[in-house]
Amino acid sequence: MEDDLEQLRIQPWQMLRRGLKLVGVDSSVQQRRGEQMNVDFFKSFFGPHPNQCSSVWNDLLIVRKIVPAQLANLLGFFMALHFLRCYPRSEKVRSALFGNIELKKARTLSWYWVDAISKLYAFKIFWPDHFVTTFVASVDGSHKKSNETRHPTLKKDPKLFSFKHHCAGFNVQIVLHCFESKIMDVFVSRGGENDMGNVLRSNLLNKIPPGKRCITDGGYDGHYDKLSGYNQFDSEQMMWFKKRIKARHETVNKRFSDYDVLMEKFTHAREKFPQCLTAVAVLVQYGLEDTDPKSAMPLFEA
User: Fold this and answer.
1) What is the pTM of this model?
2) Which among 90, 119, 229, 300 is placed 20 to 30 Å from 135, CA to CA?
3) CA-CA distances (angstroms) from residue 271 to 22, 124, 248, 266?
4) Where are the domains of the chain?
5) 54 with 11: CB under 8 angstroms?
């Protein structure tokens, strides 16, 4: 049985070649180009580096066994990655890109593998059992756009309305470890919720151990025993430290924003957005954990 599973393992170089071939870059073109150009093209279509895609695939089928061996489908895996990275709203465009696959099959495969990737969240994104330092994490929120939903009496639903984008949306909260390359929590609520409301809804305050604190920006007021933002009485060293932590968090925010499913207006059913968000969080976490010199993108030290 284990030998059968090992046959499903895909190496990074195989992931690179097969992914590019699927989107029309044949072997002769790949050979003319340098490795870095091939990798850049791959990332523009699928998001993560082939090294990280290989790790995700192997974890799904061999390590965590989330996807049964009989359902192993590399086409579906690549279609899900492309959906998250480029968010093609037209299923016809997606079908044409991947060999004119039948529309219903394209839809089914894409969502199956997006769901499978999101299930790695439980293994990759969690709170550590203990902390050594007083400052344990940074927390930040960002707004994403979505289609307007029908309201019985109003033109726009105020509970969904994002004042940042002036349309319906979501408020996404990301919690990042202060000293490790680790996303600890991701939470999403409706666009009308402010950052402090997200903290309360996500039960973040109860997750922070007594005597520990999270670093925030200016959008968070109160609960100063657990949250620490700008303080004019901080020492110069503490101000510098908080500035570095916030800049580090912005780097992670940028990696999330590389996925168009989060940056473009979300036109699918609202209940599918958390699934897409957790799948992107998993892919970003694989990138943070990567130690291969060719593909690693480590966060700078605080």
Assistant:
1) 0.95
2) 119
3) 30, 22, 30, 11
4) 2-119, 126-289
5) yes
